[in-house]
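Journal club side-thread
Mid-discussion, someone asked how the predicted structure for our own chain would compare to the paper's figures. Pasting it here so we can look after the session.
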Amino acid sequence: MKLKAGVLTLSDRASAGQYEDLSGPAIVECLEARPEFDVVWSRVEIHPDDEQTISSLLRSWSDEDGLDLILTTGGTGPAPRDRTPEATASVLEFQIPGIPEAMRAAVRDRVPTAALTRGIAGVRGQTLVINLPGSPKAVRESMEVLFGFLEHLLEKIKGDPGECGSD
């Protein structure tokens, strides 16, 4: 499946050059390792934790750039500057709560702090937007969960009328 994707790392410190972003590259690596996806990287960027900037970028990447998939990393915790879920919710047409629930459930027995992540997922137009945690390890674990249904979900968002399994 040809996939036009974008990765948005949200971190005040990484955007200021105070540390190297490892989570964004982990997302790229995970997707590129999957033979079912022919990934065209439209956007891979790092920005500060600013709710208005995040919302604006998500709108632009979806509406103007026509991305199929936007994966964010960072800004999903309980800290005061962690506003990625709120920014994402403000631009989505609808949420798909089962996605972040599945990602948290996959690690909850080993990583109790997974319960603290507030990431969401949903659709804007024909773009799937998913908030991932900010650590490379958590990104890899989340991506493994996503690969169980990502191709099917992207087909549904594009209008494939086949069975979804939850009807």
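Post-session note: The chain has one domain: 2-157.
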